[in-house]
Amino acid sequence: MSGKWLSIVGIGEDGLDGLTPAARSLLDAAEVLVGGARHLAMLPDDGRERHAWPSPIRQLVPEIASMKPRRVCVLATGDPLHFGIGTTLLKGIPIEEMTVIPGRSAFTLAAARLGWTRHEVECLTLHGRPLELLRSYLQPGAKLLALTDDGRAPAAIAKLLTEAGYGESRLHVLERMDGAKEGKHSGTAATWGETTVDDFNTVAIDCMIGQNTPRYARSPGLPDDAFENDGQLTKREVRAITLSALAPLPGERLWDVGAGCGSIAIEWMRQHPRNRAVAIEHNPARVQLISANAAALGTPQLQTVSRPAPEAFSDLPPPDAVFIGGGLSTDGLLAECWQALPAGGRLVANVVTVEGERALGDWREAHGGELRRISIERAEPVGRFHGWRAAMTVTQYVGVKP
After folding, report:
1. What angle do CA 96, 98, 103 make, to 5 degrees?
2. Which of 311, 306, 246, 253 is nearest to 281 (CA)?
3. Which residues of 279-293 are buried (b: 16+ CB within 10 A; e: fewer)?
4. CATH of domain 107-206
5. Fold category of 224-400 in CATH
6. Where do runs of H (alpha helix) occur along 341-385?
7. Domain locations in the chain as residue ranges
């Protein structure tokens, strides 16, 4: 058999009654059924071969691929390609071999229940992901929909919101939507109790910021005091210019070499939920600062490597951009970073010493690129008055690999 042997069918709490005729025909024609225990329980026992999700889930793709050319139907919750199992399967099986029929997603159903305009809502999943991811989405007036797989998650979310200064935010927990046991719980984060909810739930958050809570934008240049640091911090204005030079695009990966407290890598990841970064810092105390800052600012998936560069590069996935904030004097570091980049990759390096500036000048002579100096002055108290205090001038190199 050739062509489309695999079907992925979205199914809701209303079970078989909610399937379209096309989805039902694929299900009826399948020789093998795959899904969660909840999905498989919705089907009559007709003797066909059945497989529940394997653990760990990464085994699913080779397991299903081995079933070809038999007709296989995978049952998924709602829309299989919106934080669903379909995305996992596409990593190993081409779309030309499968048919995907989405059902009503939890996001669509929740927006309909609450009267929220779907395109104005930000959606995320906390299935198997750190709860701290939520922090990067917190903005005054934002409306968020978060998938969870744990009945304890709403209470944990309420606690996080309260600690982040969003305690007045309104929460709605919707469970088993479109099913006979559909339920809804509402309240504010600050007053949320130990309400028991079903493990299969969606949390809606209407964000309300506290009066004295800092407002952290996603645009580059967070306040310096947003980061715990030991003095090794790229200052706010220089950081904004550096992120502009790095020019992150959605889904790209950064190597932050000599990461200090991780400010560049963290702001890179805050630009878009699909962005990835590796913070390379050999100082163990600073690695701890990086991890703390990443969790506090909503990028807990930031990868940290506590090894010196360029030794650390050997086991890393390739970058789309590299920032060198420290360690430029290490022999061969610039060359190793340049070699790791693909065509079109960006290299940005900041230095404050004459020796570092000389190294960047020599590199520019050999490889092209741009050099600029960044001078920042801030008004600070001078007795009863204020005067301008200059920070150390930063020399910045920006190069794009041909």
Report:
1. 130
2. 306
3. bbbbbeebbebbeeb
4. 3.30.950.10
5. Rossmann fold (3.40.50)
6. 354-367
7. 6-104, 107-206, 224-400
Q: Taking the mean position of all CA atoms in its chain, how far away is CA 200?
A: 22
Q: Which of the 8 DSSP states describes residue 51?
A: E
Query: In CATH, what class is 6-104?
Result: alpha beta
Per the listing, tokens 């399967």 go with 89
Residue type, 361: G
- Answering whether pTM is above 0.85, one says yes
Each residue's pLDDT tens digit, 250-293: 999 999 999 999 999 999 999 999 999 999 999 999 999 999 99
Are 272 and 248 within 8 A, CB to CB? Answer: yes
pLDDT tens digits for 172-207?
999 999 998 999 999 999 999 888 888 889 999 999
Handedness of CA 295, 301, 302, 307 (dihedral sign): positive
The token pair that represents 136 in the structure block: 């990067």
pLDDT tens digits for range 239-262: 999 999 999 999 999 999 999 999
Reading phi first (left if > 0) and then psi (alpha if -120 to 50, else beta), residue 184 is in beta
- Element spanning 107, H or E: helix 106-114
Task: Name the token pair of 350.
Answer: 């900041």
Residue 234 CB-half CA count within 13 A: 32
Coil vs helix vs strand at 172: strand
Does the CA dihedral 156-159-164-168 come out positive or negative?
Answer: positive
Instruction: Give the burial class of 135: count Cβ atoms within 10 A of its Cβ; 0-12 exposed, 13-18 middle, 19 or more buried.
Output: buried
Structure tokens at 369: 């690129």
Helix (H) / strand (E) containing 291: helix 284-296
